[in-house]
Design brief:
This protein has 139 residues and is of the alpha+beta class. The protein is built from three helices and seven strands. InterPro entries: ASHA1/2-like_C, START-like_dom_sf.
């Protein structure tokens, strides 16, 4: 990671076995259903090749027709422990999965995108993690 960059992070603890958490986090049919920070967003397309060197591409859209594509390539995949990826513009994101007495804590640490307020990016990430936790709890 670039030492000059301020990193943002968010985390959530989910009460479920690590196998289920990993499956729900990485399987496209699940990602389509939880990968949004709020009801104003939806994920309409997911490709996810979960292996070192594999690529991912999530198309995210807002109800009013906006949106973006979240894509990149995994540079490190340790099943049930870590997913590290690099986006086309060189930004890195690292997700770690820690099994605790209370469940599994997922922590996402990422380099913020230039030109977008950091607080907005942090809130977006935290919102997605909360949605993931809620989704796992319901299914």
């Amino acid at each position: 990671m670039h030492h000059s960059t301020t990193h943002l992070s968010a985390s959530v603890t989910v009460h479920a076995p690590i196998q289920k958490i990993w499956d729900y986090w990485t399987a496209p049919e699940h990602i389509l259903r939880w990968n949004n920070p709020s009801d104003e967003w939806k994920t309409t397309s997911v490709e996810n090749d979960v292996r070192t060197g594999g690529k991912f591409r999530y198309v995210m859209e807002t109800n009013d027709g906006g949106g973006f594509t979240f894509e990149g390539q995994y540079d490190e995949v340790i099943p049930f422990e870590k997913l590290s990826s690099v986006h086309p513009n060189g930004r890195k994101t690292v997700n770690t999965f820690s099994v605790t007495a209370d469940g599994v804590t997922i922590t996402e640490i990422f380099e913020p995108e230039a030109g977008v307020p950091a607080a907005d990016q942090q809130a977006f990430c935290a919102g997605v993690l909360k949605q993931f936790g809620d989704y796992v709890a319901r299914h």
